[in-house]
Amino acid sequence: MIRSLTHCISLRILVFALIVSTGHANEEDAIGKNCLFIGHSFFIPVSRSFNALVNNVGIEGHLQIEVFRGGKNGAPGSLWGHEPSRKKIQSSLDKGKIDLFGMTLYSTNSSIEDYKKWIDYALKNNPKVEIYIGIPWGRISEGGVKRSVAAYSKGSRAFQARTHKELILRLRAMYPENKVTCSYYGMASVELWNMYEEGKLPGIKRVAKSNSVYRDGMGHAGDILLTVAGLVWLNTIYGIDIAKVKPAKVNFKFDYKAVAAKVIALDKEHNPVK
Q: How many Cβ atoms sit within 10 Å of the Cβ of residue 262?
């Protein structure tokens, strides 16, 4: 009897440890969040992909609101300065029911002060809100000139490191009572472009309207990048084991979940348990 009880306790401890280390055992363990996402076209389409995946796995209680403006207009500072957008976002925050407030960044209007304005406002009625900063990929061409995959990869990794030091760590120091989560989902673009150049994406086009990494020469996400980035968000926000997820209408002939897993590992490295 004692041996049986000890075995049962040990098994429960093991299961608990596995859940903590790898995420939720299943979607039933995840508690749905009321999310507000604000940003541009390298962010909001990913939030929609994420929402579809959340519905696919059946996380109860998940809700999300999106406020979109294209390009630099979707940067935090730009949204604050645009009265119609600011009022729409503030209206959602004023209700005091936002669990996760997600923003992104751009090359302009993304200073620490721009984030501070939004976070300070959010905290008035949502004191326990989780701040989510999604770091997007960069454009694949500049001024109509295609960037090389090597330069793109090097620049993206430098941008990721700089953003973590100059933005994420500073926000965590400024708001120690709140969880500040970051996602480097944009690195999925780096992984997929490199795989394409290496011939590891059979039947997939780099730029096309469907079955592609990107859907245009600027670098707006194609269905593959949206799926991979959405899976990254699903794990980073809800801790869902993506190995168990079966995205609808996806029939890619390569291990896209392995690509997502590489980026998820990066997110885990940069998000301490709190």
A: 14
